[in-house]
Amino acid sequence: MEIVRLTEDYLGEFQTLYTEFFMELREKQGWKPGEEEIYRKEAEVYFKRSDLIFLALEGSKAAGFIRLSSREGCFWVEEIYVRPEFRGKGIGRALVERAEEEVKKHDSSLYLLVLPQDKDAIAFWKKLGYGTINTIELTKNLKPSGRSAVHTVELLGERFRIFEWKGGKFNGEERHFMELLEEFYEKGGTKEEFLKLVSSALEGWLE
Q: HSE of 190 in the Cβ direction (CA atoms, 13 Å)?
């Protein structure tokens, strides 16, 4: 396996991988995928604007990619993707490590965003030493979206909603907790009441 910086010679392979990434993502999200040509044009734009893009090659075949952008002086992982037949072979880790090597020439940190329902991705990044910081995404539905399958989660007592994913991997205890949270907030429970309940339970466990 070889990790290479994207060049014009491999642009077609990158466009195909980029398209596969979004087709898989949209299926998980339950969204209709965009037209393949749109994804291919996006991929070409990112290459031409000199994003950091690395390909993993297995023999003569492109097995995966990672793309980084630079925003406001910080480097961000925008996408990482390994084809299903090549997963479990350390290719994702190798792509990340190669990207980190490049970023270290310019900065001391690498950032990314992960959806909370993507448990596989969260576990992958934590295994590589990444931790959670700062970001909460907010939205307001300005018209019916057709996306009614959501879960209730919380952060320091604040109520948040996350979309259900096809093939979601929440275990029974996690789902039960989210169901209880949903009922708690639907019945008028407040942030202050939630924090008191949790603090009391933790104090009891620690005694």
A: 3
